Amino acid sequence: MKRRKFLLLSLFGLLISLVGIWYYKLKSATGRDLRHPIDLAEICDQNTLINIGNTYRGLTDENNKKYLKELLLKDAEIYSSEIKIGLKSKVTEDFTTGNTILIDGWLLSITEARQCALLSISVAN
To answer: What's the pLDDT score for residue 107?
Structure first.
């Protein structure tokens, strides 16, 4: 009876651990994708992205990490498994509709600027 109880508790503990690891990986991947503008990161270094984010935050009232995440997820109308694709689509839509902002000589979509702002907040913390 003791062996059976031990095996069941061990299996339950393993299951809980796996769920925790899965959730942590999904959450960290989601955050990383939200705060990293894919196309812009190919031509800018991280310091430039952070400076853009700081400037954007100074021009707007979007200074809250949670608020920026909500805006990015809502604007892209995406689920966590499709973050990169959804954000890329939203950036393209922003440029098509003229939803852009000029920051430090860079013409950015609002989505890219918000991603930079989120990155600057994340690095500062």
So the answer is: 93
